[in-house]
Amino acid sequence: MEIEAASLDSNHSYRDNWARSEQELNVWKFRTIKFESTKIEKTGDQTGTMTGNLTMHGETHPIAMDVTYNRGGKHLSGKYSIDGFTAKGMVKRSDFGMKAFTPWVGDEVEFVVQFEAKRPNDPS
Fold first, then answer.
1. How far apart are alpha carbons 63 and 40 in whole angstroms?
2. What's the domain count of the chain?
3. 42-57, pLDDT tens digit by residue?
4. Alpha-carbon Rg for the chain in angstroms
5. 124 in a structural domain
6. Please, what sign has the CA dihedral across residues 51, 52, 58, 59?
7. Could you write out the three-class secondary structure of 56-84?
């Protein structure tokens, strides 16, 4: 998974601009945030844990995310199917070299990622 660092949206423009600044994400130098999974474990009928390596702000560290399978079905075109997922996790800013205003600004940041996966239709 790869996202544009500047796409951060906390629903507060001043906070977003600060988080994008050179003091934090520095989105002009480190344009992307990347996650590469190394292991997926099923924890329930619709849930699992995905571990892997997160690269952000020029540093890579292992993290774990709780993943929920939301729903799946055929695309409106009928040519393929789509499955929807939600992944939640937490990172420490300081682990990735972002220490501005710590401890006044929390070091632990919770994140949520919504994503869809495209796959061939099930044979019927």
1. 12
2. 1
3. 999 999 999 999 999 9
4. 17
5. no
6. positive
7. ECCEEEEEEEEEEEEEEEECCCCCCEEEE
